[in-house]
Here is the input.
Amino acid sequence: MPTPETTSPAGDPLSALSYEEARDELIRVVGELEQGTATLEDSISLWERGEALARHCEEWLIGAKARLDAARAGSAAASGAAAPSGASAPSGASAPSGASGAFDGE
Here is the structure.
């Protein structure tokens, strides 16, 4: 029998889950654990599944950040937008509040 870490309730491998599917299942698992009505064995299985789902979501987010970083680097290189050291943004231009480092909260 497959372990709870490797398959979804529908029997699909964990790697087949999209970020959204894994996140939604993780929310369900946490809700079940918070209710406190599961047996000890079921709670352990739920915990293991939650840990696996959290790792899966984190891998998706790390991959998404890498893709964004690569796209930004490629865009800057293609447009020659790399400003010389010490250059400033054009007058009146500024980044939206909270925009810098949006994925750097790790």
